[in-house]
């Protein structure tokens, strides 16, 4: 029996360009994918946070010991969280690092993506990942558009997806399906701010972007 789609898989599909295979926000992707896994663990009651327990790395995340998830990708993250309580910023990195490949593998296994070998200049062989079956992604995009453009009430899963898209700064990349506007930004930001994980992802992405920008300016001026 096929495994149920995870939020991290749906999010990756939404962030991926079907023709080029490029994933939006690639430079900070591990934060976003790690956040998607933590959101799912939270929704399933596999982890919890104490709003009064906030350190330098954000809210402390505690694993719920007697409720491990069945899915192996979620279970690996739950085991990481079970080692000790740690700040959400730290856990985003520990859970998200190295997640891109396994997520893409799962999407290929499902038949939603395909891999093809190609040669560059007739010499160098590489493997490219492209869209194969876009029907699931199109349904996801319709749900996102209904919320952000038409003002529909989102279900829990769509709320999580939009919050993470907003937090990662990749929502404008969906402009062909979700026309970008101030109203779309405000609706997405509201859903982002309702999730402690999405807010943590946004803080991590903004911090990294600022550091990269500062480094670029320094390199240009020195």
Short précis:
By secondary structure, this protein is an alpha+beta fold.
Structure description:
- By secondary structure, the protein is α+β, with helices and mostly antiparallel strands.
- It has one domain: Orthogonal Bundle (yeast vps74-n-term truncation variant fold), CATH 1.10.3630.
- 54% of the residues lie in helices and 15% in strands.
- The protein contains nine helices and five strands, in the order ααββαβααββαααα.
- It has helices spanning 7-15, 29-43, 72-82, 88-96, 100-109, 135-148, 156-168, 182-193, 196-221, and strands at 47-55, 58-63, 86-87, 113-120, 124-131.
- It is globular.
Question: Secondary-structure map with pairings?
Answer:
Layout: H1 7-15, H2 29-43, E1 47-55, E2 58-63, H3 72-82, E3 86-87, H4 88-96, H5 100-109, E4 113-120, E5 124-131, H6 135-148, H7 156-168, H8 182-193, H9 196-221
Antiparallel strand pairs: 1-2, 2-3, 4-5
Shape: globular
Percent strand:
5-15%
Rounded to the nearest angstrom, the distance between the terminal CA atoms is: 59 Å
Task: Give the class-level CATH name.
Answer: Mainly Alpha
Query: What is the number of beta strands?
Result: 5
Instruction: List low-confidence stretches.
Output: 214-222
Biggest sheet layout: 3 strands, antiparallel
- Architecture, CATH level 2? Orthogonal Bundle
Radius of gyration: 18 Å
The amount of helix comes to 40-55%
**Mean pLDDT across residues:** 90
Describe the oligomeric state of these chains in a short phrase: single chain
Enumerate the strands of the largest sheet in spatial order, edge to edge or round the barrel. 1-2-3
The secondary-structure class comes to alpha+beta
Going by CATH, the homologous superfamily would be yeast vps74-n-term truncation variant domain like
Number of domains: 1
Tell me the CATH topology: yeast vps74-n-term truncation variant fold
Sketch the topology as an H/E string, one letter per element: HHEEHEHHEEHHHH
């Amino acid at each position: 029996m096929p495994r149920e789609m995870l939020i991290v898989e749906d999010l990756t599909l939404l962030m991926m360009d079907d023709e080029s295979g490029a994933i939006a926000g690639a430079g900070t992707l591990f934060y976003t994918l790690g956040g998607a896994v933590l959101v799912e663990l939270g929704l399933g009651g596999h982890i919890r946070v104490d709003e009064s327990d906030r350190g330098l790395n954000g809210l402390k995340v505690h694993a719920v010991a007697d409720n491990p998830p069945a899915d192996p990708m979620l279970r690996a993250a739950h085991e990481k969280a079970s080692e000790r309580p740690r700040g959400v910023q730290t856990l985003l990195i520990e859970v998200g690092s190295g997640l891109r490949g396994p997520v893409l593998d799962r999407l290929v296994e499902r038949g939603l993506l395909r891999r093809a070998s190609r040669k560059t200049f007739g010499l160098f062989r590489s493997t490219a990942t492209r869209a194969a079956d876009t029907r699931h992604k199109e349904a996801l995009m319709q749900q996102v558009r209904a919320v952000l453009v038409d003002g529909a009430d989102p279900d829990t899963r769509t709320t999580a997806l939009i919050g993470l898209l907003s937090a990662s700064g990749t929502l404008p990349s969906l402009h062909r399906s979700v026309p970008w506007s101030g109203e779309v930004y405000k609706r997405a930001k509201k859903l982002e701010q309702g999730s402690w994980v999405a807010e943590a992802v946004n803080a991590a992405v903004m911090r990294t972007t600022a550091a990269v920008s500062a480094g670029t300016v320094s390199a240009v001026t020195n």
